[in-house]
Amino acid sequence: MTKKQKQDNPEFISLEESTSLKKGTRVTFIPGLQAMYAEALKNICYVKKIPLIRVLHPLMGTDKETGQDRQAKLYELTSQTSLPTMFHDEERPRNVWIEQLSLAERIGAEDSPSIIPENFDDKAKMFGLCAIVLGEDGLVWNMRILFDSPLAQKYGYSESASSLAPNKMAEIISLIDKRLESQEAKGSKYLVGNSLSAADIYWATMSMAVLPVPLSIMPKTKQNQGMLMFFESNSKIPKIKEVLSQRLIDHQHYILNTYCETPAILGGDTLNE
Predict the structure, then answer these.
(1) Domain coordinates in residue numbering, the chain
(2) Of 6, 235, 251, 265, which residue is most buried, by most CB within 10 angstroms?
(3) 62 bridge partner residues
(4) Taking the CA atoms of the chain, what radius of gyration do you get in angstroms?
């Protein structure tokens, strides 16, 4: 197998295989799909130079052959079924972004950049920015309830909540843009301080949901083509469209192209477009 084939077809092990391992950092993924939290964690680990073992995240539903819940083992291990789950050595699994980030910062290579500021003022700003993007009622949360779906129902979809979602998303995007403008005036390309932080990585990754990126950053696969179309439609929602700026695009491209693995390696079935 050539290097390119390995990149296009990374190896995924089963959840059962993953739990039998005593060493290594394992993260669950769905091949070919850039599930946003999984993609963000992958980018965090790439910056921290953490070698990842990719694990197949069990899909929802019942196995046709066994009649068993496909996610039963994951729930047994973690008391939840969300994507991604992060395992490291024999430590407890991590499912929440803030715990995954703290673990990545701790186990990252010695020569990797620190992405959690030591200064508590900057640390507060960084975690605050991450929270409004990643946390409950944040950017991604509201994106998931734009339209009714099984996933939207999981995140509290209602007609009233959905009607408010575009305004909330626009407010968050505008806040990020103003933050970048303020930082730019100080001579910084970053959201916090004068160096890369987790806020930059998380925002640049999650912003793909409202700021579609070129295929040189995020390839199209059979599995993610519908998601890419959804992201494109998000960028055209009037309330969101009016707050998208070139500054946001420049920051997104700079962070992803400079610090993250591009084009993203997803596995799955690549579409040549």
Answers:
(1) 3-107, 120-259
(2) 251
(3) 69
(4) 19
Beta-carbon contacts of residue 173 (< 8 Å; ≥ 6 apart): 139, 207, 210, 240, 243, 244, 248
The yes or no reply on domain 120-259 and CATH 1.20.120 is: no
pLDDT of residue 3: 39
Q: What region, left, alpha or beta, does residue 255 occupy, with left being phi > 0 and alpha being psi -120 to 50 degrees?
A: alpha
CATH no. for 3-107: 3.40.30.10
Tens of pLDDT along 32-41?
A: 999 999 999 9
pTM: 0.93
Place of tokens 């933050």: 179
